[in-house]
Give the backbone structure.
Amino acid sequence: MDGLGFPEAIGGVVSLLLSIIAYLLQLLVQDFRQMQKEQASLRELFVLLKADQQRIWDWLSSKKIPGTRSKNID
């Protein structure tokens, strides 16, 4: 037999395409994991900033500074 036959060539191309798809899926899963870590970090930062903002509002409302108003941040 001289060279590859048609089924072998198609099998090689399909195998190559499946390998590429598997690699891209692996990268996608890694990106999702990294994004989850970053989201958790941002969530913690949001909670801290919200608490600081509430503390500042409470401090300003206790000082009775003209031009400021008491605001409850939810």
Observations:
- Residues 5 and 71 are 77 Å apart (CA to CA).
- The longest helix spans residues 6-63.
